[in-house]
Amino acid sequence: MALLQISEPGQTPEPHARKRAVGIDLGTTNSLVATVRSGSAESLPAEDGRVILPSAVRYTEAGVEVGYGARAAAGDDPYNTLISIKRFMGRGLADIKHFGDQLPYHFADPSSESAGGMPVIKTVAGEVNPVQVSAEILKALAKRGADSLGGPLDGAVITVPAYFDEAQRQATKDAAKLAGLKVLRLLNEPTAAAVAYGLDKPEGGDERDVDDKTIAVYDLGGGTFDISILRLSKGVFEVLSTGGDSALGGDDFDRAVAEWIASEAGLGTDHDAATQRKLLNTACAAKEALASETSVPVSYGNWSAELTRDKLAELLDPLIAKTLRACKRALRDADLSADEVAEVVLVGGSTRTLRVREKVREFFGRDPHADIDPDQVVAIGAAIQADVLVGNKSREDLLLLDVIPLSLGIETMGGLTEKLIHRNTTIPVAKAQEFTTFKDGQTAMAIHVVQGERELVQDCRSLARFELRGIPPMVAGAAHIRVTFQVDADGLLSVTAMEKSSGVQAEITVKPSYGLGDSDITRMLQDSYANAEEDIAARALREAQVEAERTLEAMLVALKEDGAELLDEKELDALERAMQGLRLAHNGGTAEEIRSRIDELNTLSESFAARRMDKSIKRAMQGHSLDEFDKP
Amino acid sequence: MELQQNHFEIFGLPVSYQVDRPALAKRYRELQQEFHPDRFAAKSEREQMLSMQYAAQINEANNTLKDPVARAAYLLKLAGVEINPEQTTADGEFLMQQMILRERLEEVRDAADPETELDELGSEAARLFKTQESAFSSALENGALDDAKNALLKLQFLAKLQRQVEELEEDLLD
User: Fold this and answer.
1) How many whole angstroms separate alpha carbon A207 and alpha carbon A202?
2) How many CB atoms lie within 10 A of CB A561?
3) Residue A340: in which H helix or E strand, if any?
4) A444 with A481: CB under 8 angstroms?
5) Residue B157: which H helix or E strand, with range?
C-alpha cells in the first residue's frame, strides 16, 4: 500500500495539480481570453456574458476604463480614449505620422528620455505610452481569467501577428510584464488558428496519421493583415512563410467607407476628431449590415443614401487586392502555388465581410474554413497551447515551429545593412559574427541592429544599439570580438559578445530604439502601484512565491525523473537542502529572501540541468543511428 | 555549451553532398520534438536556456544541410578548406557566361514577353547550377579539393543569379 504524503503544518503543499493557464488574443480592435476546461477550449465571458473585450482604454480623472464602456466614449472623449493602440507597439513617433491627421491624440514631446523613443500620449490621467495602454487591456483579461479559474494565473500564451518585428514582440512582452503575467510563449496568431481548428487531427483519427499538408491562414483583423503558409506534418506545425501588412485591416475598410460618406455628404476631408469618429462608426455599422443585406440605407446629418454590396465591393477591392498580393508573395516564399494549399482558414472579424470571402475563395480555388467564430479562433488556439506549455496536458506530438518574419542585420560602413539572419529562418536561431577594432587601444564599440529587407539602414527598422565595453586594449585589428545574436522561440533578440584571444566577455548595454529598458519597466511598475490600491510589496511577495513554487515543482519533477541516476548522494543532499531552504523562505520570508533562495537553488542545480540535457541528447541520438557516430 | 556532433552527425546522415532530404526532414522534426524550448516551458530556467541553444543549433544544422551552397561550403570546411567572402572564380569562360546572363537579366523588363524570357533565364540558371553541383560532388569525393572549391565559387555566382531572377519575377508580379 502506498504511503500518503502529508506536508508538515505551515509547509507548501504539493503545487496544485491543475495549472491555471489562459490564451490571450491581444488584438488591434478586440481582445479575448480563453482557457481549456474539461478538455475543451472556450472563450471566457465578462460578467455581462460577452466574450469580446474591445481593445479600448479610457483614462479619466477617476481611473482607467477598459472595453465596451471605453469604446462607447471614444466619440465624446477622443483625446483620452485610446483605440487600436496595437498599431503603435514597438513604433516611434515618426512611424505613426503616416496615420496622419486621423489620429485624435495629443502627443507629448518625444525627446524626453523616459519615453524610450515611443509615442507618448497626453491624457487627463497623465502621460501614457502604448506598452502601458496594452498592459491595461492585458490586466483586464488576466483578471477575467483569474476570477473565472478561481485564482491567480500560472501562465499565459499571448498571440502576436506573425508579421510583428522584434520591437513589436518585445513591446508585447513588456506589456505582459507590466500586467504581471507570466508569458509561456508569444505565439503567432495564424499558428494559433490552425491549432484551434485541429487541422492536425483527421476526422476520427489521430494526428500522427496526417502526412504533409499545407495550410494557408488568412487573417484580416481590425488593424493588421497576416497571411501565413504552414506545413503540418506528423503533428508538427511549421511556418513556411509569412507576409502581410501591419497597418492594414478592417479599420481601413471603415475609413474607405467613411471617406465615401464624407465625400458624398459634401463634408470635405478635414474633420475634427469627434466627426471622424462618428463617420467611422456609421461606416462600420453599414459594412457589418451588408453581411446579411444586399443594400443598406446610410445617413449622416441631413444626408442619406443607399450603400449596396456592389458599391462596397468597389470601395474595398483595392484594399483586398493588397492582401492577395501579400498572399502571392507568401506562396512564392514557400515555393508553392495556390492550388497546392490543402486548407484555408479565415481569422479576424473582417473576414465576415462577404467580399473578402469571395475574393479569398477565388484566389485559392477552395472554400475556406470559417466555422469557428473568426473573432475567437486565435484565443482558442492560444488556450490549447497554453494548456500544453503549462504542463496540464502532455501533447508530445504537438510542436509549433515559428520563423522570424523579417531579416535581422547590422549596420556596416556607409549606412549599409549586412543581413545576419534571413527572414523565414526557423527560430530559435543563433548567428555569430566577428568584429575587430578600428583604432589602437580601442576598448568599446557600438553595434546597430536593424530589421528589414532593404539594403540601406535608413530603409530598415532600427531595433537597438548595443554598446560593447571592456574589450582588452590591443593594436587596431588585433582584437577579435565574436558577437552572438540569439533569437529565442518568441522572436526576441539577445546579444552576447566575447573577445576571442583573451576570452574576455564584453559587457553589453542595450538601447532599444522604440521600447523600454529594464529600468523603465521597473519605474512604470512603480508608477502603476502608486496609482493603484495594490501594495507594491504585497505584489512582489506574491510574484516571488509563485516563482518559488514553479522552481520547486520543476526541481521535484527533475529529481523524480533523473535524481537517482545522475546525482551522487552528496549532490542530492545539497539540492534537497536548498529546496528545503526555499520552502521555508516561501512560507515566511520576504520577496528578497525568496529570490535569493531561488538563485541559490538555480546555481546549485546548473550541472544537474546540463547532465539531464546530455542524457536527452544521448537518448535522442540513440536507437536511430548509433553506429553512424564515431566521435565521442 | 554545444552539441559535439557535426551537422551531418546530428541528423545521423553520412557526410556527403548527396543528402537524403526526407530522412533529414524526419530527423529534424524528431530532434525539435525533443529540444524545442516549448518542451521546457515548465522546467528550470537553466534547462530552458540549454534547450534554446540546442534548438538553435539543430536549426542551424538543418538550414546548412538544406541549402545546396551552404552545404557545399560546410563540407569544404569540414575538409579543412575555408573560402573568404571576397574570393571569386578565376575561370574566364565562366565569368564571361555570367556576364552575358546578367545582361539578359537586365534587359528582361524591355523584352516583348518578359515572363517567358525570365522563365528561360531561370531554367538556364537552374541547369548550370545542377552541372556545378555534380562537379562539386565528384571533386569532393575524389579529394580534389581545389576543384571542389572552384565549383563552390561558381555555385555562389549561380545562386545569386537565381535569387535575382526570383526577385525580378516578384517585381513583375506586383
Assistant:
1) 6
2) 12
3) none
4) no
5) helix B145-173
Region class of A95: left (phi > 0), else alpha (psi between -120 and 50), else beta: alpha
Q: What is the pLDDT of residue B152?
A: 94
User: Smallest CA–CA separation between B133 and chain A, in Å?
Assistant: 21
Pairing of strands A416-421, A295-300: unpaired
Does the distance separating the beta carbons of B5 and A488 come in below 8 Å? Answer: no
Mean pLDDT of the A597-616 span: 88
pLDDT value at residue B151:
94
Q: What's the 3-state SS for A432-468?
A: EEEEECCCCCCCCEEEEEEECCCCEHHHCEEEEEEEE
Please name the residues between 44 and 103 in chain B that touch chain A, using a CB distance below 8 Å: 44-47, 50-57, 59-60, 62-63
Q: Please, which residues bridge with residue A432 across strands?
A: A484
| Other Cβ atoms within 10 Å of A542 Cβ, number | 14
Measured in angstroms, the CA of B92 and the nearest CA of chain A are apart by 29
For A355-402, give the secondary structure using H, E and C.
Answer: HHHHHHHHHHCCCCECCCCCCCHHHHHHHHHHHHHCCCCCCCCCEEEC
The model's confidence at residue B70, banded by pLDDT at 50, 70 and 90, is very high
C-alpha cell read off for A554: 520543476
Neighbouring C-beta atoms of residue A604, cutoff 10 Å? 16
Beta-carbon separation of A631 and B60 below 8 A:
no
Lowest mean pLDDT among A177-181, A205-209, A455-459, B56-60: A205-209
Cβ A374 vs Cβ A349: under 8 Å: yes
A vs B, Cβ pairs < 8 A, gives 124
| ipTM here | 0.83
- Rounded Cα distance, A399 and B33, in Å: 6
Taking CB atoms and an 8 Å limit, are A617 and B52 in contact across chains? no
Cα distance between residue A114 and residue A609, in whole Å: 39
A-facing residues of B in 98-137 (CB < 8 A) are: none
Residue to substitute from B44, B59, B60, interface A, most A β-carbons within 10 A? B44
Cell of A628: 553512424
All three cell numbers of A524, joined, read: 512604470
Identify whether the C-beta of residue A58 lies closer than 8 Å to the C-beta of residue A65. yes
Cα(A404)–Cα(A408) distance, integer angstroms: 9
8 Å CB contact of A428 and B14: no
Q: Is the pLDDT of residue B61 over 90?
A: yes
Instruction: Show the DSSP H helices in A334-369 as ranges.
Output: 354-364
**In this prediction, what percent of chain A has a pLDDT beyond 90?**
40
Residues A509 and A412: their CA atoms lie apart, in Å, by: 19
B44/A605 Cβ within 8 A? yes
Tell me: pLDDT of A23 over 90.
Answer: yes
Question: What distance in Å separates residue A242's CA from the closest CA in chain B?
Answer: 15
Per-residue pLDDT, A111: 59
Q: What is the pTM of this model?
A: 0.81
Taking the Cβ of residue B20 and every Cβ of chain A, the question of whether any pair is shorter than 8 Å is answered with no
* Three cell numbers, residue B133: 553541383
Q: Which residues contact A139 (CB under 8 A, 6 or more apart)?
A: A66, A179, A180
**Distance, in angstroms, between B45 CA and closest chain A CA?**
8
B-interface mutation test, from A384, A419, A547, A621, most B Cβ less than 10 A away? A621
d(CA A168, CA A463): 10
- CA–CA separation, A355 vs A350, rounded Å? 10
Nearest to A553 by CA among B38, B41, B34: B41
Q: Which residues of A are annotated as catalytic? A: 25, 86, 189, 219
- Residue A164 burial (C-beta neighbours within 10 Å; 0-12, 13-18, 19+): buried
Question: How far is it, in rounded angstroms, from Cα A4 to Cα A577?
Answer: 22
Using a CB-CB cut-off of 8 Å, the residues of chain A touching B55 are 428, 489
